[in-house]
Specification:
Helices cover 74% and strands 0% of the residues.
């Protein structure tokens, strides 16, 4: 049991540090030597855990990025009665500025999807599957919102989910180039207007 615990701790450290490295430099700008230096590992120790740099990154996706995105954007969806309030709050928290938030809560997923697009189909598939999980959960809470009377009956929940994801990925890209407090405010205000337009009660604060 103690050995298993130690292994889990080691793997968590390798995943956490690896995510920081890949997010800072980009996957294709990070060599195996860079990884070994940053992790203070020999090649033998690295290959004991992972088959390749690609396998290492996939392991990070499965064991860390999935958890981070789920905790940030999926889990909060069921924490309020009105799904529009829950979605808005989750997006506002995800857009909080600062380096700590960038790694702990920020949406590095968009950066990786852009980097791997048309370059690595396998890794792209793993990353896009995470978006699919978010989309499925958005559609589910939006449909429940229609049943509960929070969202107008005529609303296309799949279309709304697509718009939310696309707009959020877009604003994340813009904010990665600037610490735009005004930009974030404008985005959230327009999102509130949009949510009011699809709300049955027209009362998204």
């Amino acid at each position: 049991m103690e050995r298993n615990l130690k292994r889990r701790e080691t793997m968590h450290r390798l995943h956490t540090m690896g995510l920081e490295i890949f997010h800072a430099k980009g996957y294709y700008n990070t060599s195996l030597d860079d990884i070994l230096t940053e992790l203070d590992l020999s090649k033998g120790a690295f290959y004991h855990h992972f088959k390749s740099k690609e396998d290492y990154f996939i392991s990070i996706i499965q064991n860390l990025i999935v958890q981070k995105v789920y905790a940030l954007l999926v889990q909060p969806l069921n924490e309020q009665e009105n799904p529009l309030h829950a979605i808005l709050d989750s997006l506002e928290k995800a857009l909080e500025p600062g380096k700590t938030n960038e790694m702990a809560y920020g949406f590095m997923l968009n950066d990786f999807i852009t980097e791997f697009n048309k370059r690595n189909a396998e890794i792209s598939s793993y990353l896009k599957d995470i978006l699919k999980v978010w989309e499925v959960n958005l559609v589910s809470v939006l449909k429940n919102g229609k049943i509960d009377g929070h969202i107008a009956r005529h609303i296309d929940c799949e279309g709304v989910a697509t718009y939310i994801i696309a707009s959020y990925l877009g604003i994340r890209s813009l904010l990665s180039e600037t610490n735009g407090r005004q930009l974030k405010y404008q985005y959230l205000q327009q999102l509130k207007h949009y949510f009011n337009s699809i709300s049955e009660k027209r009362a998204v604060a």
